[in-house]
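User: For a benchmark we're assembling, each entry needs the component sequences followed by a predicted structure for the full assembly. Here are entry 17's components. Please fill in the structure.
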Amino acid sequence: GQNIDQPTEMTATEGAIVQINCTYQTSGFNGLFWYQQHAGEAPTFLSYNVLDGLEEKGRFSSFLSRSKGYSYLLLKELQMKDSASYLCAFMDSNYQLIWGAGTKLIIKP
Amino acid sequence: GAVVSQHPSWVICKSGTSVKIECRSLDFQATTMFWYRQFPKQSLMLMATSNEGSKATYEQGVEKDKFLINHASLTLSTLTVTSAHPEDSSFYICSAREGQGFHEQYFGPGTRLTVT
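Assistant: Structure for entry 17:
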């Protein structure tokens, strides 16, 4: 079967670094996405990994290990505006996105 | 970048009435559009996938006679919630994809539906 799991909530301090983990299980895999979603708004695309390794994009980086079914999103130099939910999703063999429940990130001053 | 719009952004309706939500791709042709529902503090739940000119494919547990989806053109899909009930109150989000296979999904801003 398919499943995807990420922590429900995390708290971090402004200016610090936080890593949000995501584990998944699937027989067909066409990449893993991270989206940011502020309350009451639609998700916005952050990153896409299809090969193993780290993709860096400014303050945000995303890592993938296909053999371990594992990804993480790393946020550096946290800002208050980074308070949001972070959704990981993998694309299955039918090119459908299978979504995690989201991790609510709370940033404290 | 690709833009997807939704209308209305929020709507309040009375129980028993129907509500139509529009999803438009503004600067690309959307071969496939997706409709999601999101309840508070929960993740996105895919309701249905629609390809232009064909019937929508509904996910298990989603009533196709209650949630009518029309994808009549490459830039417009509509979701009609028929005979709405308070439990249908939710955040409805559409997304659009330009082609088959791997293409990024672009999300609309969402529609907040409240049924009283």
